[in-house]
Write a structure and sequence with these properties.
The complex is a heterodimer. By secondary structure, chain A is mainly alpha-helical. Helix content of chain A is about 80%, strand content about 0%. Chain B is built from 6 helices and no strands. Classes of the chains: A mainly alpha, B mainly alpha.
Chain lengths: ~160, ~160
């Protein structure tokens, strides 16, 4: 969800109106959703749904979030398949690709900044950097390693060494 | 920021490109670019699109369920396990380790995507300009639109002879 966090103030107004969750609590949920792999919007929907109405609430909230994008994407997908080799599509995507890669790199850099450094670069968290380097080295050496395994390994390493 | 979904890219690469060979690196970049512009998360959009190409609309629906379900289970489980205690030290440490690993994984994805998706000096200029704009705080959606428009002008209209 590009710019998904732009929706946060809107969420908070709605949550407080319905008495589901305070804004402060939702900030905690967001940080949890941001820390866990997977989409922030989906994770926080599941979490808020659970806290408001238990497991059915979690399922309903997640489904309600996913359904519109699935429907929209089904329509766009057919269009994308038909236009696959169309010159206009090719030109537009040629322009989009480098931009997209820049966005991904930037997201990575933002995570790196929050993870490896203290507030506003006041401190360097060396131990965390070492965990990152080790994880990078493992995936470089073991090309076929399952990313899920690497994530679990890093979580355990975090508990043990940080 | 909206980093969450990008954590899925290494997983998508491994399953869809390396193992199942359903799509190429180039296709994945198409899907990510596309997902930037549509509401919804990259993972759901990618699943819906690839499911649709492999097995029509039902394929798309089943594939997106396949993406949503694990996320739903993990967060629901986390809600009842960790509940209000995710500020606890041990959880924070595990998440910090995982984020360090994510940085390494995103770097690798970016490297792979650069190798497959960026050909020619214009692409590199696009990439650097996009990155610079992000650092200057330009809204990502604006950068995406600019990339698409410039791509159209340069490669379709041959506005500039390059």
């Amino acid at each position: 969800m590009a710019g998904g966090l732009a929706m946060v103030p809107l969420f908070i107004v709605e949550f407080e109106k319905h008495g589901w969750m305070t804004g402060e609590r939702f900030m905690d949920v967001l940080s949890l959703a941001q820390m866990t792999p997977g989409a922030i919007a989906m994770n926080s929907a599941t979490y808020v749904g659970n806290s408001v109405a238990g497991v059915p609430g979690g399922i309903l909230a997640t489904g309600a979030l996913a359904a519109p994008s699935v429907i929209i994407m089904l329509v766009l997908s057919n269009f994308l398949m038909k236009a696959r080799d169309h010159p206009v599509k090719k030109a537009v995507f040629k322009g989009l690709k480098p931009v997209t890669i820049a966005l991904i790199l930037f997201a990575g850099l933002q995570i790196a900044e929050k993870t490896f450094f203290g507030d506003n670069f006041t401190s360097i968290r060396w131990k965390v950097i070492v965990v990152g380097i080790v994880a990078g080295f493992i995936q470089y050496k073991v090309k076929k390693i399952n990313p899920v395994f690497l994530i679990v390994f890093s979580g355990i390493a975090g508990i043990l060494f940080l | 920021m909206f980093g969450g979904g990008y954590a899925m890219i290494p997983l998508l690469e491994r399953e869809l490109i390396d193992k199942k060979k359903w799509i190429t690196n180039d296709d994945l970049l198409d899907i990510i670019s596309f997902s930037q512009m549509t509401p919804g998360t990259i993972a759901i959009n990618a699943a819906t699109h690839i499911g649709n190409t492999q097995g029509k609309a039902w394929g798309g629906i089943v594939a997106s369920l396949g993406v949503v379900t694990p996320s739903l289970l993990i967060i629901t489980l986390l809600y009842y396990l960790v509940g209000d205690h995710f500020e606890s030290e041990i959880v924070q440490k595990a998440f910090t380790g995982i984020r360090a690993c994510l940085v390494a994984m995103i770097c690798r994805s970016v490297y792979k995507l650069i190798r497959s998706g960026m050909k020619g000096s214009v692409s590199i200029i696009f990439f650097l300009l996009a990155l610079l704009s992000l650092f200057c705080g330009v809204h990502p959606v604006l950068i995406i639109v600019a990339g698409a428009a410039l791509g159209f002008l340069i490669w379709k209209m041959s506005l500039f002879k390059l």
